[in-house]
Write a structure and sequence with these properties.
Blueprint (H helix, E strand, L loop, with lengths): L1 E6 H4 L11 E6 L12 E7 L13 H8 L4 E6 L9 H15 L1 H4 L1 E9 L1 H11 L21 E4 L11 H8 L3 H6 L13 E6 L8 H13 L3 E6 L16 H7 L9 H12 L7
Parallel strand pairs: 3-4, 3-5, 5-6, 6-7, 7-8
Antiparallel strand pairs: 1-2, 2-4
């Protein structure tokens, strides 16, 4: 495995805003003859959650490594959060997508997908719906690289209306009501939005599953493919629900409460992506 972290602002020769981060860590499989020097792999850009207040390590590397072990190239974006507001995180996500695509030949990458949990799910859904946002014009011709081929959204923050996650929108938009409405992403879905696998739980009292339902309804109305999975139990921030993302105590706390498997979404998303033609090619 090849692991490397780059500063996206340095890579693109841009001045970094105050308090901004914008660092991308890449996890690339070693290329060796026994497999194939010409094999092409999908890439997965991972956008951790954290309410736009921080980026959660639990939803970064653990998720990236799941896709890496399934043959993907994985990239984790440590994007800017509070006190940075819109559009800083979106610009960094756009840079990350462009970086992966423009280096696709070196990385042996074919398709490029994105995954995000919670507020990272909101950022991921921004890539899926407002990839043409004017804040990304600075990429010039590379702006066309921003749109993912598919997205995986885990208990995502979507709406600024009823059942919103107030902290995420406060950290992202402040008191700007017009911006809150613009970034209420169920209103931004159109026929050209990116297909999505959506996972949430009814038991999530932090980011209610209504967020996922609103997005799914908008996708259905626009005629955009999606796969919606809502479990009855389970609380917020499940990540991959194993020892790479949680303590033993936390895992044991979940076990007696439900027969539902909170990490089934990993394999399910891989099957869904393959059905969409996103797969490893020799």
């Amino acid at each position: 495995m090849i692991v490397k972290t780059i500063d996206l602002y340095e890579y693109y020769g841009l001045e970094k805003p105050e308090n901004a981060v914008g660092k991308l860590t890449q996890y690339l499989p070693d290329i060796f003859e026994a497999v194939s020097f010409t094999r092409k792999r999908p890439a997965m850009l991972v956008l951790p959650g954290g309410g736009y207040e921080y980026t959660s390590p639990r939803e970064g590397e653990p998720i990236a490594l799941k896709y890496l072990t399934k043959g993907y190239c994985a990239f984790v974006l440590n994007y800017s959060t509070k006190p940075c507001k819109y559009p800083t995180a979106l610009r960094e996500a756009g840079m990350a997508m462009a970086y992966i695509r423009e280096n696709a030949e070196e990385f042996h990458v074919n398709d490029v997908c994105a995954i995000g949990g919670s507020a990272g799910g909101h950022l991921c859904a921004c890539l899926a719906t407002i990839y043409a946002d004017k804040s990304l014009d600075f990429l010039g011709d590379k702006k066309s690289f921003v749109k993912p081929d598919a997205c995986v959204l885990l208990y995502p923050v979507i709406t600024s209306g009823e059942k919103t996650h107030g902290g995420s929108f406060e950290n992202l938009c402040g008191d700007d009501k017009a911006l809150r409405e613009y970034l209420s992403l169920e209103n931004r879905v159109n026929k050209d939005s990116v297909p999505a696998y959506i996972f949430a739980t009814l038991g999530d009292t932090c980011v209610p599953c209504k967020n996922s339902l609103l997005l799914a309804c908008a996708y259905e109305k626009a005629g955009v493919p999606f796969s919606l999975h809502i479990l009855e139990k389970g609380y917020h921030g499940l990540s991959v629900n194993d020892i790479t993302s949680d303590s033993n105590a936390r895992l044991l706390e979940r076990e007696p409460s439900t027969p539902e498997n909170y990490n089934d979404w990993v394999e399910q998303s891989l099957v869904w992506l393959k059905e969409r033609g996103i797969k490893i090619e020799d």
